[in-house]
């Protein structure tokens, strides 16, 4: 028996892009559509025609669109008479090429710039059939769509878009198969999982089923069958009613034999409930014991934590008191350090006096003029003076690094007029890292670089005190500015702490001896005598320790040209040295 035509298996509202398996194009036509419609607008409306219409009052039948269509000229093959085979072949190829083209399709979705599918190119066909594809790999955001744009591309010289159609899969018409179908030009067919669909053809009405004649009974036989059916239905209703009555009797009057299993089943179920309740109670008791134990442990931990917290708080309070004391001590120490630094800088100003000269921006240190990094026109005498002045500057910078607690980036070795400075930072050989601060018998650029490093040290000291150096070449002015700022303040300068090293020349009783040291006090007395002798004894070449000035030499203190001798002919240097001993 021939099977009936297939029908769609998917409801229209359920058709999605994931069900699309293939696309075909039928009756490919490359001719452009006509430029105007074929209707009454194409009639002749010249004045002669209109005049002729007015002269004829009788009615005429209207022409149809088929009559209004311009007649096509008959094709003539007389021009092929006597044509060469190559000409005939070319004509046939032109006819074939006018109906065939290279074709491929692309599928596009809304919101996506690139096509979701590009088919292969089918060459020289009128009814291109493309390979099947699977779009399930594109993700649910694409496969759940029900609208797709189909573009058909054809190639004459270049690929161009022939057809662009936005298709809603719900509006497709089911075809079943492509056999015995007449397709309009450029028809697009869609192959879904349940068959072929199109958007151009009108669906065919379903064909009626082929029927056949069956033998039937007479009227009397049919009446007897109807009566028999009514009797059967009455019997079935009676049977159902009797069964219902019997069931009610059995249910309402149960026998002892049937109640025993029910009671046993109820007892078994009750025993199960009791056993489960006992297990739950035992579990709850164990959980209660665990919670009590945990609570007790937590209470113990909380108590110990409170004790530790109280102890820590006591330590914090004690430490707070100590911290306040330390802060006060730190503040006091900083204040004392600032005062001592002011005193030291004031004394350094007195030890290394820096005074201006008549020349602008030219200063002297210890009476020696030092130009600001300009040493072009210098004699040998000026070279010695500049070297000595740089030695004083080096000694002052060397001392300031300790008093201000600022390490120098370029270490200084103070040797008077033969002072040196080293550069441990630059990429130099170890033998070339030391630069002289004197001009005699040295290479000029090494001396200039040494002065530059010395100025950089002064700049580092100034920056440590928050000062900004405008020109590092002004060596002595920058140093004077630094000492002036470091010694500035409104508080009274603190006194020098008592104490010292045995054997050093002290400047006075209040400044040179330690408290409670008789020997140091004696040395201080000798220091006073030595100072007075140095102040007054150079006039006449001799003096005594009490300042009498009678020209006699004291047995306790003798002043010689080579040094100062105190008692027994020893100098004020360390007693272990044997220099300048006057016998």
The CATH superfamily of the domain at 342-487 is identified as Autophagy protein 6/Beclin 1
Overall 3D geometry?
flat
The structure class reads alpha+beta
| CATH topology term of the domain at 342-487 | Actin-binding Protein, T-fimbrin, domain 1
State the CATH class of the domain at 342-487: Mainly Alpha
Question: Could you say what the CATH architecture of the domain at 342-487 is?
Answer: Orthogonal Bundle
- Rounded to an integer, what's the Rg over CA atoms? 63 Å
Sheet having the most strands = 5 strands, antiparallel
Run of helices and strands: EHHHEEEHEEEEEHHEEEHEEEHHHHEEE
Helix content: 40-55%
- How large is the share of residues in beta strands? 5-15%
- Catalogue the unreliable spans: 1-5, 504-527, 533-583
Descriptive keywords:
disordered C terminus; Actin-binding Protein, T-fimbrin, domain 1; 583 residues; alpha+beta; 11 helices; five-stranded antiparallel beta sheet; Immunoglobulin-like; disordered N terminus; 42% helix
Task: Explain this structure.
The protein has 583 residues and is of the alpha+beta class. It is 42% helix and 13% strand. α7 (380-403) packs parallel to α8 and α8 (444-464) packs parallel to α9. It is flat, with a radius of gyration of 63 Å.
